[in-house]
Each structure stands twice: as structure tokens, then as C-alpha cells.
């Protein structure tokens, strides 16, 4: 008897991607996994429910996948943040769905499928427990060189605009030995780069070790010989301790790439957002990073149009971007999310003004990015080769994060291997990407 075929569609952040990889690992024990949902008997959509645009994308994807029920699809499943947030409401909204699973219910996946196949009745599991962190055998979906590793789940911060703590629960770190064991296995399987993720990586260990322990974890992971790059995402700028900054500065395996989503810089807005940091300590830590790591690359994300953001607040943010010159920067317009403090605030900003401010910040950053990229010409880097397109190899250096930053296109007559590190010289800068040749 042929195995049923399963297709998994992942939406949202890197943490969602890890959940999807765990889901694929679970279903592969019983079913055949296929890349094309249209060929699947069972389709699983791992949704995002963070902001309005993410929710729209998730719902549209479910509706798009539901069309395949007229063909091969026997069971349509939605899981992830959207389902955890709205639960069985989605079954009423989208009756084509057969199964709803919350973010901690993947252990019920196969039994739920079997029940639906037998009874043809809808099933919803969206109970939540702060005690769980999704773990299990994963099928890595990020190629053969790079893998994401979750070091914690949930969040204790109470940012006024964010529903994540209500979806993912309180902050809980994974045991250091479990993370080390996972990374050792990835290293055995040939992975060269690991990317550490959590809602807030700088708080790692605060719950189970009673102190921030990211620097200790980095030190331990760097002892795993075949891992060449350790990248850390989602650091809170104000939570960067001297120990963490020193580890970034002195540990050769830790990428000199610091992702610090500051969201805003006006103290008025930071206070309204219920962010812990203020302009002074955020700026102090940025200057510490640049002093101790002269070649550090800084990435941030910002929110414009938060309730009550006046011209003065926005101008302060725009001037800060000009002054600091972040190497990489992303901007979101504020999304009014139900069940958050900010949704009930007065002085909501007009959508047109949000868009104007978004474009103004992006114009400011575009000039900075062009200058940053232009300064790359002539520099020599170690590059991880990840793919080939025709005669051109494509890779990244240690200060380029996959999927969010640019790439390096390597012109080479010499045959290179995927997963190989090569030394290249940058010969041309494009808007986001770089062109290089092998360094002789």
C-alpha cells in the first residue's frame, strides 16, 4: 500500500521554520513528504499571526491550499501562531479546514490525521502549556550548510504592540546541554553555520540558570570543531551585557553581526511601547559594540506610526538612523493588533502618515546602504559557497544573514564545492548584493 503524501507550507519567522522542520520530521515517520502541495494527500500550513499582513498571508494561503481538496488533498491542516491565537474560530471562518493545531500540539498531529480519515469530522487542539518547547528530529530545510537552532521559547517582555507572549507563553530557555547536543549532531551532518534564535536571545538562561548565559553558551558551542560560524539573531540592544559584547568581540567563531531590533529611539515612544530600553542605554551599547568590534555589522528593525508618534518623535528616529548608520535596517508600519495594549491607545496614526514615514526612513537607509556597499569594493572575505547558478557561484560572508541580507556572486572558472569556504575579493557593489572573484 502506497504511503499518503504530505506537503508542508511554512510561513513567518525563523522560529516557525524550526517548528515546520520538526513537523516534517514527525510526519516522515509515517508518510511520504513532497515539495509540491498540489501533489499531497495531506497539506499542513504552519501559519504566522504576528501582524495584520502576516494574518492575511496565512488566511490567503489556507484558502489557496483548500482548492486542492477538489483534487488530491484529503486532509487540510493549519497550525502555528494564527491557530493558537484564534483557535476553533478558524474552523468556522474556513470550513475547508479539517484540523486546527496550536503551537504545542504537534504530538497530536498523526493521531488527528488518522481520526479525520476515519470519521471525516473536524478536530481542534489549541490548549497551551508554558512547560513545552517543541523539540524532536528535524528535517532541515535551509540547505546543507546552514541550520537554525532555537535556544529559548516564549517571551517575558510586555511590549504594548505585541501578542507573542499570549501566543507563545512565558520565556523558557532550553538546557545548554541539549542545545550543545543538537549542534554537535548538526556538525556531524556537515553543517558549517548555526543561527541561534529566540524571541530574545540576550535573556537566554535567565530562567533556568538565574543569570544571562548567552556568552557561556557561545563559548561552549565554539568548541565544536567543524562549526565555523555562530550567528545570533534578535538581541535586545539594552540587554547586551559586557560579557555578551566581549564574547562577540573575542570569539572568532561568533559572527561580527549583531541583530538588535530597537523598534524606536524616542524615549516617549519607547515608554509607550513598554520597551525596557531608552535612547541613552541603547546608544551606549551600540557605541560599545563599535568600539570593541571595529568591523561589526549592525542590523536593526524599526516600527513607525506607533500611537502618539508625533513629528518630533519621528524626526528624532530619522536623525538617529542618519547618525548611527546601521549597516542593515528594516521598517514596519505599526499594526493595530487586538488583545494588545497599544490597540486601545488614543492617537492612532493615519495609515497614510505611516506609509509616508516608512518611505522616508527607507530613503534615508537606502543612501546609507549604497555607501556601505560601495565601501566593500576591494575587501577580501571568507565566503561560504551555498549554490550555483549557471557559471556563477553564490555565497555569503559572515556578516550576511540568509534570506534577509544580500549575497555574493562569485565569478570562478575553478570548480567550487557547495559548503566550501573560499577567499574572495569584492570587485563590484550592487544595491544589495556584491560581485567577487577568487582571491589569488
TrEMBL record:
<feature type="domain" description="Radical SAM core">
    <location>
        <begin position="141"/>
        <end position="371"/>
    </location>
</feature>
<feature type="domain" description="MTTase N-terminal">
    <location>
        <begin position="4"/>
        <end position="118"/>
    </location>
</feature>
<feature type="binding site">
    <location>
        <position position="13"/>
    </location>
    <ligand>
        <name>[4Fe-4S] cluster 1</name>
    </ligand>
</feature>
<dbReference type="GO" id="GO:0051539">
    <property type="term" value="F:4 iron, 4 sulfur cluster binding"/>
</dbReference>
<keyword id="KW-0963">Cytoplasm</keyword>
<dbReference type="Pfam" id="PF18693">
    <property type="entry name" value="TRAM_2"/>
</dbReference>
<feature type="binding site">
    <location>
        <position position="48"/>
    </location>
    <ligand>
        <name>[4Fe-4S] cluster 1</name>
    </ligand>
</feature>
<dbReference type="InterPro" id="IPR007197">
    <property type="entry name" value="rSAM"/>
</dbReference>
<dbReference type="InterPro" id="IPR002792">
    <property type="entry name" value="TRAM_dom"/>
</dbReference>
<dbReference type="InterPro" id="IPR013848">
    <property type="entry name" value="Methylthiotransferase_N"/>
</dbReference>
<feature type="binding site">
    <location>
        <position position="162"/>
    </location>
    <ligand>
        <name>[4Fe-4S] cluster 2</name>
    </ligand>
</feature>
<dbReference type="GO" id="GO:0005840">
    <property type="term" value="C:ribosome"/>
</dbReference>
<dbReference type="Pfam" id="PF00919">
    <property type="entry name" value="UPF0004"/>
</dbReference>
<dbReference type="InterPro" id="IPR005839">
    <property type="entry name" value="Methylthiotransferase"/>
</dbReference>
<feature type="binding site">
    <location>
        <position position="81"/>
    </location>
    <ligand>
        <name>[4Fe-4S] cluster 1</name>
    </ligand>
</feature>
<keyword id="KW-0808">Transferase</keyword>
<dbReference type="InterPro" id="IPR058240">
    <property type="entry name" value="rSAM_sf"/>
</dbReference>
<dbReference type="InterPro" id="IPR020612">
    <property type="entry name" value="Methylthiotransferase_CS"/>
</dbReference>
<dbReference type="GO" id="GO:0140101">
    <property type="term" value="F:catalytic activity, acting on a tRNA"/>
</dbReference>
<keyword id="KW-0408">Iron</keyword>
<dbReference type="GO" id="GO:0035600">
    <property type="term" value="P:tRNA methylthiolation"/>
</dbReference>
<comment type="function">
    <text>Catalyzes the methylthiolation of an aspartic acid residue of ribosomal protein uS12.</text>
</comment>
<dbReference type="GO" id="GO:0035599">
    <property type="term" value="F:aspartic acid methylthiotransferase activity"/>
</dbReference>
<keyword id="KW-0411">Iron-sulfur</keyword>
<comment type="similarity">
    <text>Belongs to the methylthiotransferase family. RimO subfamily.</text>
</comment>
<keyword id="KW-0479">Metal-binding</keyword>
<keyword id="KW-0004">4Fe-4S</keyword>
<keyword id="KW-0689">Ribosomal protein</keyword>
<dbReference type="InterPro" id="IPR006638">
    <property type="entry name" value="Elp3/MiaA/NifB-like_rSAM"/>
</dbReference>
<dbReference type="GO" id="GO:0103039">
    <property type="term" value="F:protein methylthiotransferase activity"/>
</dbReference>
<feature type="binding site">
    <location>
        <position position="155"/>
    </location>
    <ligand>
        <name>[4Fe-4S] cluster 2</name>
    </ligand>
</feature>
<dbReference type="GO" id="GO:0005829">
    <property type="term" value="C:cytosol"/>
</dbReference>
<keyword id="KW-0949">S-adenosyl-L-methionine</keyword>
<dbReference type="Pfam" id="PF04055">
    <property type="entry name" value="Radical_SAM"/>
</dbReference>
<dbReference type="GO" id="GO:0046872">
    <property type="term" value="F:metal ion binding"/>
</dbReference>
<feature type="binding site">
    <location>
        <position position="159"/>
    </location>
    <ligand>
        <name>[4Fe-4S] cluster 2</name>
    </ligand>
</feature>
<protein>
    <recommendedName>
        <fullName>Ribosomal protein uS12 methylthiotransferase RimO</fullName>
        <ecNumber>2.8.4.4</ecNumber>
    </recommendedName>
</protein>
<dbReference type="InterPro" id="IPR023404">
    <property type="entry name" value="rSAM_horseshoe"/>
</dbReference>
<dbReference type="InterPro" id="IPR012340">
    <property type="entry name" value="NA-bd_OB-fold"/>
</dbReference>
<feature type="domain" description="TRAM">
    <location>
        <begin position="374"/>
        <end position="440"/>
    </location>
</feature>
<keyword id="KW-0687">Ribonucleoprotein</keyword>
<dbReference type="InterPro" id="IPR005840">
    <property type="entry name" value="Ribosomal_uS12_MeSTrfase_RimO"/>
</dbReference>
